[in-house]
Structure formats: structure tokens, C-alpha cells
Design goal:
Strand order of the largest sheet: 1-2-3-4-5-6-7-8
Shape: globular
Strand content: 15-25%
Order of helices and strands: HEHEHEEHEHHEHEHEHH
Low-confidence stretches: none
CATH architecture: Alpha-Beta Barrel
CATH superfamily: FMN-linked oxidoreductases
Largest sheet: 8 strands, parallel, barrel
Bound molecules: SN-glycerol-1-phosphate
CATH topology: TIM Barrel
Number of helices: 10
CATH class: Alpha Beta
Structural class: alpha/beta
Radius of gyration: 16 Å
Number of strands: 8
């Protein structure tokens, strides 16, 4: 099934989705098989691959290796055009709505088209909103944009809604990889109540209870990366759901 259709159907049924994020820049290729074995028996529904600073070709090699060990959909979450590879199942076509850097709103997208034209990658327009989290994150540095204030909900709400009006299929609330503080429950609740499209939440989520809080507040998809880089023991707490 197509990735977006699956997300829509799961969201409609209230079934929560979970993405394990692998950053090719921080991940040891030789560790792929062992790591993916743990992902396969966890509650993960998707594997996201991407990062802010990734060497050319690293994504393609990693995606090919991951695909040898799992049937889960692999979704690109790229920091740059060079991270697009046709070996994945889908691409989050991210527009950084929280910033005013034209390159990350539309410029990189135009550059991506020549790569996308000849692939079967499913392209999913995604409004990406960076929210402050206690530390300056890689996204902020790489894009030269500031995160939105975590205490002012209305501008975040307006930004997410503008994304929906523009035709985005997903909204991604991002605290940034390794964030000290994840996106607040209040922000997730407010944004979810206004959206008709699925909501992804990620950044700084390290424990099962933080993940459950994000779901309870309205996240349809939760993304976790750094917590697994720090301690793969978390997989034991995130066992596959019995349907
Ligand atoms: C980062 O939202 C993702 O872009 C995941 O963040 O690495 O902090 O889990 P973490």
C-alpha cells in the first residue's frame, strides 16, 4: 500500500504510527542488520532516513542495506537534495514553514525535481515546523532559520493551518534532533484540533511515557531517533502492538 494512504487509513482508525529515524551521518553501516532486527520486532511502522549533514551517497547505501532486512516502508526525511534516492518507498517533501529561508521553502524542491522525475518515489508534501527546544538544533544551523517560540501557540497554529491551506498532506512538528525539550502537549493538542491532515511529532522524545503523551495529545505519527542512538534498550519497551 502507498505510504500516505496507509498513514491516512491508520489515522482515520485512531491507530498510532511510529517511525524510527536513522541518520546516515551518525549510523554505522555494519550495524544495520542488528539494528533493523530490533526495529522489526518493535512497534515501528516506518523507518525514516535522513539528517541535516549527510555525505553524498551515504543515504543510498544505507537505504539499500536497510531494505535487505525489513519489509517496513522506508521514508526519506532529507536534509538536502543529495539525500534523495529511488531505493526508498517515499519521500517527505519538506517545506520549512517556520522559517523564511526561500531555499528551504521552495528552492531545494525545484532542484530536487530532476532527481525525482525518473523515480517511482512517492512524494508526500509535508509542512515542517521547527519549534524551540532549549538548544540550537542542527536544522536551525543547517537552514539558517530560527525555531518558533514554544510558548506562543497561536503563530504555530496559524503556520500549520497555512500549510494545510497550501495543500500539504502532513504537518511535522519538530523540536529538532536531540532536543532538550520535546514539543509541548499544548502545542500538539492545539495543532491537532485544527488540522484535517495527519500530524507527525518528533525531536527529543526519549521515553515511552513521552511518546505516549505525544499520542494522547494528538500526534498520529511519532518519530524517535536520538534515543535509540543513545540506548537501544528502549526497543524493549516499545514492543510490536498486537492487532
Ligand atoms: C529529528 O524529529 C526527529 O528530526 C527525531 O528527533 O533524534 O531527537 O529523536 P530525535
Amino acid at each position: 500500500m502507498l505510504v500516505y494512504k496507509h498513514i491516512l487509513e491508520a489515522t482515520a482508525k485512531g491507530k498510532k504510527l511510529f517511525a524510527v529515524l536513522i541518520d546516515p551521518d551518525k549510523f554505522e553501516l555494519a550495524h544495520t542488520e542488528n539494528f533493523i532486527k530490533k526495529v522489526n520486532v518493535s512497534m515501528a511502522s516506518h523507518i525514516f532516513v535522513g539528517g541535516s549533514f549527510v555525505a553524498d551517497n551515504a543515504t543510498e547505501i544505507l537505504v539499500k542495506t536497510i531494505k535487505r532486512h525489513t519489509d517496513l516502508p522506508v521514508v526519506l526525511f532529507p536534509g538536502d537534495v543529495s539525500q534523495i534516492t529511488e531505493n526508498a518507498d517515499a519521500l517527505l517533501f519538506l517545506s520549512l514553514l517556520s522559517g523564511r529561508n526561500a531555499d528551504y521553502l521552495i528552492g531545494k524542491h525545484v532542484k530536487a525535481v530532476s532527481k525525482l522525475r525518473d523515480t517511482d518515489l512517492e512524494v508526500i508534501p509535508t509542512g515542517y515546523i521547527l519549534i524551540e527546544s532549549g538548544v540550537k538544533t542542527a536544522v536551525s544551523i543547517a537552514t539558517g532559520t530560527s525555531a518558533m517560540s514554544r510558548t506562543k501557540v497561536q503563530p504555530i497554529l496559524d503556520t500549520a493551518s497555512a500549510g494545510q491551506f497550501l495543500g500539504m498532506r502532513l504537518i511535522y512538528l519538530e523540536a529538532g534532533s536531540g532536543a532538550k525539550q520535546p514539543v509541548t502537549n499544548a502545542i500538539i493538542k492545539a495543532v491537532k484540533s485544527e488540522l484535517q491532515i495527519p500530524l507527525i511529532v518528533g525531536g527529543g522524545l526519549r521515553t515511552k511515557s513521552q511518546i505516549e503523551n505525544a499520542y494522547a495529545s494528538g500526534a498520529d505519527v511519532v518519530v524517535v531517533g536520538t534515543a535509540f542512538e543513545e540506548d537501544e534498550g528502549l526497543f524493549k519497551e516499545l514492543k510490536k502492538n498486537k492487532d
